[in-house]
Specification:
Chain B: One of its GO terms (molecular function) is oxidoreductase activity. Chain B: InterPro entries: Di-haem_cyt_TM (IPR016174), Mopterin_OxRdtase_euk (IPR008335), OxRdtase_Mopterin-bd_dom (IPR000572), OxRdtase_Mopterin-bd_sf (IPR036374). Chain B: Keywords: Membrane, Transmembrane, Transmembrane helix. The complex is a heterodimer of chains A (185) and B (481). With 185 residues, chain A is mostly helical. In chain A, 77% of the residues lie in helices and 0% in strands. Among the domains of chain A are: 39 residues; 86 residues. Chain A is flat, with a radius of gyration of 29 Å. In chain A, 15% of the residues are buried. The C terminus of chain A is likely disordered. Chain B is of the alpha+beta class and 481 residues long. Chain B has three domains: 34 residues, no CATH class; 255 residues, no CATH class; 137 residues, Oxidoreductase, molybdopterin-binding domain (Sulfite Oxidase, Chain A, domain 2), CATH 3.90.420.10. The longest helix of chain B has 32 residues. The chains are: A mainly alpha (185), B alpha+beta (481). Chains A and B meet through helix 1, helix 2, helix 3, helix 4 and helix 5 of A and helix 7, helix 8, helix 9 and helix 11 of B.
Chain lengths: 185, 481
């Protein structure tokens, strides 16, 4: 019994996981291969595979590094700002992130209408043109940025009001050794 | 740096379960005491980092690290960790099967028994066959709107889930054992599958066929590649997801503000940043961000499924547009112009040809209007996840079947005047011909059909996929065997 368990453990170390793992993986490849085998005669198979690859590369090696870099720049410049003399009492980072992400998400999902791609098919299917979509997207984007700006100003006012109140209180109650806590968000 | 921040950083570095550390200055001894009382890690970090067969290959690979990979310091988000990944994973575990199943159900709704579901030959890759029902009439609309709208709403969750596991993609060496190598390949099928399905679906609902292959075929077989990757991933990761979800209390996370947000303890998979930055967002903030993205998409797509006043909120989608207030002012799925309908064929010379047991019968529009008329309020619902419900008037299909001498048909083959297109014909099941609300519609909302809506006559059958409600009908052939 102990001998057998040791053998299983040795094989697991050799393979890197328990014995059910390779069965699951091979089942996965078999199902995927069976699915794609139906396309063997399809003249567009290579095109489909290309799109599959582009979907992965487009997300993992273009979109992700792109938005990660943009966010790194945003947080770094906000950090630099907070260390300078123009220190803002409320970090603007999330008030920029939110409308940018919202607008970007809408663009990513609805770009064919916005950039008027596939207009011939669009017209055939609907009898209309894609003309309104770019303006509509810009309008929604503007609304989101405006809402974020209003929210930021309100938040800023709230924090400044609270801070001045606290300053008054500490100057009144001087001598108790109270230290103002950093602003919580 | 203030004391609290320094402490936060230190806790992060020492990978102490942050839930157990209330804020406030604590002595180093307190921290140490708490660390020793920590339960042992469920997964030994070192175990996952050791090499399987062939050790030499993985070691050698590890030495040739391409730029951009294997930089533990490059990952700075203090929010990444098994718990957050598992929350996104749990949401997708529940919802993606709904999207997948509704897609497969739609295939059945196209009646594959007549060879008219696309792709025609799918082998075993389909749900068990059943006769698609005609009741409730909104069944296909519900199925498709669920498929498309839920699919779109999940896009932010899928992106968040991918974001949360990104450090693993850029890990080096890419595998340390045969098991990891196989798993990475199956992950490629999973991630590629879900992104491929999203991309083709998003383009298709906007009539952008830039991909240049058959949408139905690619989306169908792509779905099975995704299903394969999904099942394998769930089988391998489910226990880890459960463990990770138990590691933190959701309720407590939802009460934790940014200032008290600390990284998760270092994990075996390397999701948690070894050198995290200060949080700019709490975990509840991150969940809220993803949730707002989904909510935004829901608000801006649901209208194409509900119709009515909410339709205009589908502000960026083709099916959020208005066609005016007239009786024919509703969504057109294919214009007469695109179908190359010649108005000489739809005028007074138009005849409907019926075939069945008694040979061929032809009827003109006046003849059809002289037959008993029936009115039904039915949706047109399309594979693209939109619907529009209108009140149709015309002759019952079962009356036409009886006229043709086939009172109990098993199928009916409908042909259109359309000169081009894949949907110039459709075969209806027996139950679809016999349903009391199935019509050869001549009028809609009290007016004659417009040319774009199928004048002189079109089929409208409850719960039938939109494209099978043939417009500009030329002939119907009923069979009973």
């Amino acid at each position: 019994m102990g001998e057998m368990r040791r053998a299983v453990a040795r094989r697991s170390r050799f393979y890197g996981a328990n014995p059910a793992h390779p069965l699951v993986q091979l089942g996965c490849f078999a199902l995927a291969a069976y699915s794609v085998s139906h396309l063997a005669e399809n003249p567009n198979l290579s095109r489909m595979i290309l799109w599959f690859a582009v979907a992965v590369i487009g997300h993992d090696l273009v979109m992700f590094p792109g938005y990660a870099l943009a966010d790194r720049i945003l947080t770094a410049s906000s950090g630099a700002l907070s260390r300078s003399r123009f220190r803002l009492p409320v970090s603007p980072v999330n008030y920029v992130r939110l409308p940018v992400l919202g607008s970007g998400l809408l663009f990513a999902l609805f770009f064919p209408g916005i950039i008027e791609q596939g207009s011939v098919w669009y017209r055939a299917a609907t009898g209309q043109t894609q003309e309104p979509f770019s303006g509509r997207w810009l309008f929604v984007t503007a609304v989101m940025f405006a809402a974020a700006a209003v929210a930021y100003v309100l938040r800023l006012g709230h924090v400044l009001a609270r801070r001045s109140m606290r300053t008054r209180e500490t100057s009144r109650g001087r001598g108790t050794g109270g230290v103002a806590a950093p602003d919580d968000e | 740096m203030c004391l609290a921040a320094r402490l936060r950083q230190r806790i992060a570095l020492e990978a102490v379960d942050p839930d157990r550390i209330p804020l406030g200055p604590r002595s180093a001894r307190d921290l140490r005491a708490e660390r020793t009382s920590e339960p042992a890690e469920p997964h030994d970090p070192a175990a996952n980092r050791s090499y399987g067969f062939p050790v030499g290959l993985w070691r050698a690979l590890a030495r040739y690290r391409p730029p951009g990979t294997g930089h533990p310091r490059a990952w700075r988000s203090p929010l990444r960790g098994p718990w957050l990944t598992s929350v996104f994973g749990l949401i997708l575990l529940v919802t993606l099967p709904v999207v997948t199943l509704t897609g497969l159900v739609s295939y059945i709704a196209y009646a594959p028994q007549f060879g008219q579901a696309i792709p025609a030959d799918v082998g075993w890759l389909r749900l068990p066959r059943f006769t698609w029902p005609t009741s409730p009439s909104w069944l296909y609309a519900l199925n498709q709107c669920t498929h498309v709208i839920l699919g779109l709403v999940l896009v932010p969750v899928v992106l968040a889930k991918l974001w949360s596991v990104m450090p693993k993609l850029f890990d080096w060496p890419p595998a340390r054992s045969p098991a990891q190598l196989l798993e990475r390949l199956s992950l490629l099928l999973l991630v590629g599958g879900v992104l491929f399905e999203i991309a083709t679906g998003v383009l298709n609902i906007q009539y952008d066929y830039v991909f240049g292959f058959s949408f139905y075929t690619a989306h169908y077989f792509g779905a099975w590649v995704f299903i394969a990757g999904f099942l394998a991933h769930v089988a391998v990761k489910l226990p880890r997801m459960v463990t990770a979800l138990r590691s933190r209390s959701l309720r407590r996370e939802l009460r934790t503000p940014r200032s008290r947000t600390l990284p998760e303890p270092l994990d075996a998979d390397g999701l948690v940043a070894a050198h995290p930055a200060e949080p700019t967002l709490s975990r509840r903030g991150a969940l809220g961000l993803v949730g707002s993205g989904s909510l935004l998409v829901a608000v801006m797509t649901a209208g194409q499924g509900t119709g009515g006043g909410a339709r205009k909120f589908a502000y960026l989608l083709p099916r959020g547009r208005s066609y005016g207030d007239g009786p024919n002012g509703f969504q057109i799925n294919r214009t007469a112009e695109a179908a190359l309908i010649d108005t000489r064929d739809t005028g007074s010379s138009w005849r409907l040809s019926l075939a069945g047991g008694l040979g061929r019968i032809t009827l003109d529009r006046t003849g059809l209007l002289a037959m008993p008329q029936h009115t039904a309020t039915l949706p047109i619902s399309c594979v693209e996840g939109w619907q529009t419900t209108q009140t149709w008037t015309g002759v019952r299909l079962r009356d036409l079947a009886a006229l043709a001498g086939v009172p109990d048909p098993t199928s009916a083959h409908v042909r259109s005047l359309e000169a081009v297109g894949a949907f110039d014909r459709a075969t209806l099941q027996g139950n679809q011909v016999l349903a009391p609300d199935s019509l050869l519609a001549l009028r809609v909302n009290g007016a004659d059909l417009s040319l774009d809506h199928g004048f002189p006559a079109r089929v409208i059958v409850p719960a039938l996929p939109g494209v099978h409600n043939t417009k500009w009908v030329r002939s119907i052939e009923f069979s009973d065997g």
